[in-house]
Amino acid sequence: MAAEGSGRILAEIADMVTSRIAESWVSATVAAQVDDDRADFVISYLDSDGNSKQMDIEKAIEIIPDLSDRFTSLQEATADGEKGVWSRCQYTAHSDGRFDTEFSWEPPDWAS
After folding, report:
1. What single-letter DSSP state applies at residue 6?
2. Where are the beta strands (DSSP E) in 55-110?
3. Other CB atoms within 10 A of residue 71 CB
4. What are 104's strand-pairing partners?
């Protein structure tokens, strides 16, 4: 796994998502499900008052093609030698610059 490459990709995802949040925010989360044929995303954020909100659909649609490319690149950069590429990722960017990622190899919802 190329940590430098995955760090750059994660920063790009954070930039892409948070630049479309029009208000003060604490964290932004992308729940991604990705396979060879499809990618689905749920984008939400926590505002500065602690309210959880979904990203405006029109703003989300603008970034879906690029977001899909970035998550596919992230899959390649973070593939596990034994398990291969993950199919689910919970990615959270925090306003202080930190980020958290959780990967799962459970099949996407549409595969079951």
Report:
1. H
2. 88-94, 99-104
3. 21
4. 88
Contact 31, 41 (CB under 8 A): yes
Superfamily of chain region 3-111: BH3703-like domains (3.30.500.20)
In angstroms, the CA 112 to CA 57 distance is 26
* Residue 102: closest CA among 18, 15, 32: 32
The predicted-structure confidence for 7-37, as pLDDT tens digits, reads as follows: 999 999 999 999 999 999 999 999 999 998 8
Render the burial of 89-108: b for 16+ CB within 10 Å, e for the rest.
Answer: bebbbbbeeebebebeeeeb
Residue ranges of domains in the chain: 3-111
- Distance between CA atoms of 83 and 70, rounded to whole angstroms? 20
CA distance 47 to 10: 21
Predicted model pTM: 0.91
